[in-house]
Every structure is written in structure tokens, then in C-alpha cells.
Design goal:
- The protein is α/β, with parallel strands linked by helices and 455 residues long.
- Among the domains are: 86 residues, no CATH class; 230 residues, TIM Barrel (Alpha-Beta Barrel).
- Helices cover 34% and strands 17% of the residues.
- It contains 18 helices and 17 strands.
- The protein has an 11-stranded mixed β-sheet.
- A hairpin with a 1-residue loop joins strand 2 and strand 3.
- Helix 1 crosses helix 2, helix 3 packs parallel to helix 4 and helix 9 runs parallel beside helix 18.
- It is globular and about 70 Å long.
- GO terms for molecular function: catalytic activity; iron-sulfur cluster binding; metal ion binding.
- This is Radical SAM additional 4Fe4S-binding SPASM domain-containing protein.
- It comes from Desulfotruncus arcticus DSM 17038.
- InterPro entries: 4Fe4S-binding_SPASM_dom, Aldolase_TIM, Elp3/MiaA/NifB-like_rSAM, Radical_SAM_PqqE_MftC-like, rSAM, rSAM_sf.
């Protein structure tokens, strides 16, 4: 009997993680143990699986691959396509790339971390972007999310999309303000077999135009949600929360539920980019923010979780799910936490700025961290992931933070909190090693218990 991996599955490896398999349709990467990798390698259309040399453990793993639709029967001798064969990179493992393909925008958002209305970070040329796509492929990264600025203002948008497809890099998410989301755009995505999530900014009923700086932006966003849903795309909403739209959460909840969105992520504005000019006048006191979150959680849970809800690090619950997680609770409270990276997301998800620089995460844009990070115009992802200031930051372990921060090192919550979010710490204290005031307030005021009471 002969089996062959389905065409969209490819075998990959990285520095320190030798075996993996990526579904090039979705970009999902599965890290494999030795037995499972060997079993997948036997599904090459040439190895006779009836051979007594195939071990029982291999047969069990092969059966699972067939059951999961990863491998199927074939005629002997078919063989794997060239792109499917095992390819190892010198880069350390990264799961995805979040890429600002432009620093330009067609709106004038007051809170833009990129200062896109002023095009502060500009955009790379087509040739430079194609070189970065080659680097992503060379690092065996399976999926990319495209953002900006407004990614749809790039004149070569489809050229970049097609280059990603040619390299079999899945477009996982498209972030947009919605103004340029037309039927033609959605049809072009579908024609190319791209079924990415469409992620739209919507900053609460009656408040969106003010924050986005353009009259009619709110209606354009609502129209884009409806249009994307009609074409069968899942729609995620991201809301920037400030003092003047905090009381609009309940009304916005009802609208988004009626529109049939898949997820809603809410985060308070941060004093970087354009928002720094507001000098804190629209900042929400932490207690007011968290109390509003609790009210929204009650509504969401009582309503059967009609969409996924993420409230910063405070709370996450999937669609139609009665189980939740609290991202701020990062560790299990034991000494094992000391050797963990301070942010798992930054460790496996890259962010590429509009000017080609790597940053640990988007909220660090506009901070001093920018000047310390490598640029992919002069280095490569593989080099940056192995030895650079960037890798030093994303690979920082909790024990190092405690050596740099005596206040957190002496806290009773330190082995669960892990000093919170480093971008928030920079925003609060000006230091990567500083205190995240939001995380500190969460634990010291027992919000974990308050959330549990809702359930």
C-alpha cells in the first residue's frame, strides 16, 4: 500500500526544532515528534507501507494522518512534489508574520500608532517587499497577516498577494478600515482561493468618525462588514477604547451581534504615535476600564458568547464557548515560570514595520525600542531570529526581568503575572523592564475572582 501527503502539506524544520509540517492552505504549522515525522515521510508515494520494516508506532501515526485528511492512498511511484519535500532553515521557529505593508492611510486617525496620516514610516518599494517575502519563505514561516496603515492603498497590493501565494505562504488575516473593501476586492480574494479573516476597525456607535478623523467612516465600516459577510468571509472587529466611547460598549455589542461578526477585540488607546499628542486627556482610569469589562463579560456570557471576545489581557472567550482564559495569568505560579519567555506571542509571531524594521509587537511602535531593532533591508529574518537585539528581547526570560525590577521581584503574584505586558510597561514607565500598571492592578484587586463569579 502506498500513501502520499496531500499537496498542501509540506515538511519543514528549523534551528532547534527539527521537524514540522505546514498546511499551506491555512498556514497552520504542526510541530512533530520523531515518530510522527518519520510516518509523514513514509507517505511519499514511494514507500510500501505494508513492509515489515514499518514499526507499529509508525503505523499508528500513519493511520492518524489518514484519518485527519493529511495523507491519502495513491499509486506507487507518484512521489511528493518538490515544494512538499523536507526543507530545513537555519532560522529559529516563528509561526506567523504580522506585516505593515504600508505606513500610508486614507483616513486621519487621531490615535494611529504609526502616525499614518503623516505617512511617518512611508512604504517600501515593490522590489523590497518581494525580497522580504523571499525571507519569510526562507525562514519556513507559513502565514502572514497584512496590515498598514491601510494595506489596500498600495498600488501593488495584488502583486504582493500573488507573490505570497507563489511561495505558498497563506494570507491569514487582512486588516483594513473598510473604506476600500468592495465586492470586486472580495471576489478577487475568492478567485485566488484566499479565505482570510477580514479584520475591521470599529470604534463604537456614534464615535467612530471622530476617532478616524473622516466623516462617513462609520457607515463605510458597517457597509464593509455586511459586504464581507455576504461573501462568506469571517469578520473580526478591533475597537480602540478611550474615555469618550467607554459608555457605548453595550450599544456596539448589539450592533456587532446583529451583523454576525466572528470576533471582537477591545483595547484601550496607548500614548504612542498620534495619540501621544492628546497628552492623556482621553485615558480611562484602570478601575473604570476593568469594571466596564466585567459588565461586558456578563452580557457576553449570558448571551451564549455569540462571537469571540478579547478584552486586552483581561479576558478571552471563544465563540459559543463557556470556557474562558485570562491572558494576564501567564504562568502556573511555580518556579518553572522563571525560565519562560516573558511573552510567548512575541517569541513566535514577528511584526514587520512599514519601513522594514522588526519589532517585538505593534504597540512598541513609536517607542525607544524602534531604534534598537534590525531592519530587513540590511539583515534577514533568519539572521535576526538567531543573533540580534531583536532576538535578545523576544527571548527574554522572566528571571532576567526580576533581576532588573526589584518591585516586581518582591511581589506575591510574580509567578502568575510575569510582570504583564512589556509594551504596556514601556508605555507606563518608559522601560522594557518596568511595571505594567494594568497587570499590577488586576492581581492586587483580585479581578480573577470577580470574573469567576460571573461564571
Amino acid at each position: 500500500m502506498y500513501l502520499r501527503l496531500k499537496d498542501k502539506f509540506v515538511l519543514r524544520g528549523w534551528e532547534g526544532i527539527p521537524y514540522g509540517m505546514t498546511d499551506t492552505g491555512t498556514g497552520r504549522t504542526m510541530l512533530l515528534d520523531t515518530i510522527t515525522f518519520q510516518a509523514a515521510s513514509f507517505c511519499d508515494g514511494k514507500t510500501d507501507l505494508a513492509s515489515p520494516l514499518i514499526l507499529p508506532a509508525h503505523k499508528e501515526a500513519i493511520d492518524k494522518l489518514v484519518k485527519e485528511g493529511i495523507a491519502g492512498e495513491c499509486a506507487g511511484g507518484e512521489g511528493l512534489a518538490g515544494h512538499q519535500k523536507y526543507r530545513r532553515t537555519e532560522a529559529r521557529f516563528a509561526d506567523s508574520v504580522h506585516w505593515s505593508i504600508t505606513g500610508k492611510c486614507n483616513l486621519r486617525c487621531r490615535h494611529c500608532f504609526l502616525s499614518a496620516p503623516q505617512a511617518k514610516y512611508g512604504e517600501l518599494t515593490t522590489e523590497q517587499c518581494l525580497e522580504i517575502i523571499d525571507q519569510i519563505a526562507g525562514a519556513n514561516i507559513g502565514k502572514v497577516s497584512l496590515t498598514g496603515g491601510e494595506p489596500l492603498v498600495r498600488r501593488d497590493f495584488w502583486q504582493l498577494v500573488d507573490a505570497l501565494r507563489e511561495k505558498r505562504i497563506a494570507i491569514h488575516q487582512l486588516y483594513t478600515n473598510g473604506v476600500l473593501v468592495t465586492d470586486e476586492l472580495l471576489q478577487q480574494l475568492q478567485t485566488r482561493g484566499i479565505k482570510c479573516g477580514i479584520y475591521l476597525s470599529f470604534d463604537c456607535c456614534g464615535c467612530h468618525d471622530w476617532l478616524r478623523g473622516v466623516t462617513g467612516a462609520e457607515q463605510a465600516a458597517i457597509a464593509a462588514i455586511k459586504r464581507a459577510r455576504r461573501h462568506g468571509f469571517e469578520v473580526g472587529i478591533e475597537t480602540a477604547l478611550h474615555k469618550d466611547n467607554l459608555n457605548k460598549l453595550a450599544q456596539t455589542y448589539e450592533l456587532l451581534k446583529a451583523l454576525g461578526i466572528s470576533s471582537w477585540k477591545i483595547s484601550p488607546t496607548m500614548s504612542v504615535g498620534n495619540w501621544a499628542h492628546e497628552q492623556g486627556q482621553y485615558d480611562i482610569p484602570i478601575k473604570d476600564l476593568y469594571d466596564a469589562y466585567l459588565q461586558l463579560i456578563k452580557k457576553h456570557h449570558g448571551d451564549g458568547a455569540p462571537f469571540a471576545l478579547m478584552l486586552g489581557g483581561f479576558y478571552y472567550c471563544g465563540k459559543e464557548n463557556d470556557q474562558y482564559i485570562i491572558p494576564l495569568i501567564k504562568y502556573d505560579g511555580t518556579e518553572k515560570a522563571l525560565r519562560q519567555t516573558v511573552c510567548r506571542s512575541c517569541r513566535i509571531n514577528l511584526y514587520i514595520m512599514a519601513d522594514g524594521r522588526l519589532l517585538p509587537c505593534i504597540p512598541m511602535t513609536g517607542t525607544y525600542m524602534e531604534k534598537e531593532m534590525p531592519n530587513l533591508l540590511t539583515t534577514t529574518i533568519t539572521e535576526a531570529m538567531n543573533s540580534s537585539r531583536y532576538f535578545d528581547i523576544i527571548d527574554t526570560r522572566l528571571e532576567k526581568l526580576f533581576r532588573e525590577n526589584n518591585e516586581c521581584a518582591g511581589c506575591e503574584h510574580k509567578l502568575k503575572c510575569g510582570m504583564g505586558c512589556r509594551a504596556n510597561a514601556i508605555n507606563c514607565s518608559g522601560s522594557f523592564y518596568g511595571v505594567d500598571a494594568g497587570s499590577c492592578y488586576f492581581f492586587k484587586n483580585r479581578y480573577e475572582e470577580k470574573i469567576k463569579k460571573i461564571f
